Amino acid sequence: KPRLYSGMQPSADSLQIGNYIGALLQWRDLQQSYEAFFSVVDLHALTQPNDPAELREKTRRTAAQYIAAGIEPSKSTLYVQSHVRAHAELAWILSTITGFGEAGRMTQFKDKSQRFGADATSVGLFTYPVLMAADILLYQTDIVPVGDDQKQHVELTRDLAERFNSRYGTAFTVPMPVIQKDTARIYDLQNPAAKMSKSAESDAGVLWLLDDPAVSAKKIMRAVTDSDGTVRYDRDEKPGVSNLLVIYAALTGRQIPAIEDEYAGRGYGDFKKGLAEVVVEEFGPVRQRALDLLADPAELDRLLAMNAAKADAVADATLADVYDKVGLLRRL
Ligand code: TYM
């Protein structure tokens, strides 16, 4: 079976619907035909300020949401990044073949460092994409399903794999990003020009997987639309309505034109009510499963430990090969 790798940061108490639609739904389907590795990337989350106890809890919560959304820990390897030492070690090796300018061109770094200012920008934030490359390359990954904001990082990963392979001999599979075009970017409900994000400034435009369904329904009813009044997909002229249509289609598996037809001649109120029902129906059970899993943290931790052992075995083999190839002396 070909290999698949992906991950998410435990950067909030709950995932948002962009993570769910842009990534988790694909993961759930793809795990059937790929040997899949899914990590909760807690080392990456350290690049932003964290309360240590909260980070631990967010890590568990993120893992629980993977499982609740349909990732099967008996079939796929679902683990916590920091449990597998090889990630940090390979990141160091890869950092020695990454150009300073090359890393500086990453748009996510440029955006964040500009927002934080030079003094609040850590070296870890700068090398974040190198750690991500290590995640992917340790597992001889064929495909990396992500939303489009991660595409540039996967491109860097490919460049680093090719560079290493030609400089030292082939150690890595060169991975392909897989981006579901229609759902690659879910937008903020209050600001449909910005992508929905766990770190959004205002909560009103973000739908959280673990929110009380009634709260999510209310946010949908208040979502920004336009004064045109027709339920029609037009990304440029009607970004708010188009975003809601994309969410509706993704959660129901229906085509956008069929949804437009259903709401033809009806107002936005009806459409939003319909979407709110879809969201409540989809997220209600996911939320309940996640809360059930979190009620027994010891069992969850045990599951994560078993999966980390599976990941370790694969990652250690790649790392040992890399250490040999770059000329590190083997410890007897
Ligand atoms: P993160 O935690 O920001 O996001 C997790 C996944 O969700 C996707 N996503 C979205 N998709 C559509 N619309 C949105 N509004 C939206 N917001 C987020 C992201 O594209 C991503 O697929 N660096 C990564 C985590 C990572 C990783 C990896 C991913 C670390 N190592 C190795 C893949 C492979 C990140 O911060 O994702």
Automatic annotation (TrEMBL):
Gene Ontology molecular function terms on file: tryptophan-tRNA ligase activity
Residue positions binding ATP: 9-11, 18-19, 147-149, 186, 195-199
Chief place where the protein resides: cytoplasm
Catalysis performed (reactions): tRNA(Trp) + L-tryptophan + ATP = L-tryptophyl-tRNA(Trp) + AMP + diphosphate + H(+)
EC number of this enzyme: 6.1.1.2
Residues bound to L-tryptophan: 135
CDD domains from the UniProt entry: TrpRS_core
Pfam family, one: tRNA-synt_1b
Enzyme superclass (EC): ligase
Keyword vocabulary terms for this entry: Aminoacyl-tRNA synthetase, ATP-binding, Cytoplasm, Ligase, Nucleotide-binding, Protein biosynthesis
Motif 'KMSKS' region positions after renumbering to this chain: 195-199
InterPro entries named in the record: aa-tRNA-synth_Ic, Rossmann-like_a/b/a_fold, Trp-tRNA-ligase, Trp-tRNA-ligase_bac-type, Trp-tRNA_synthetase
Compartment(s): Cytoplasm
SUPFAM superfamilies xrefs: Nucleotidylyl transferase (SSF52374)
NCBIfam families given in the database record: trpS
Function, in words: Catalyzes the attachment of tryptophan to tRNA(Trp).
UniProt family annotation: Belongs to the class-I aminoacyl-tRNA synthetase family.
Binding partners and assembly: Homodimer.
Name of the protein in question: Tryptophan--tRNA ligase
Source species of the chain: Microbacterium insulae
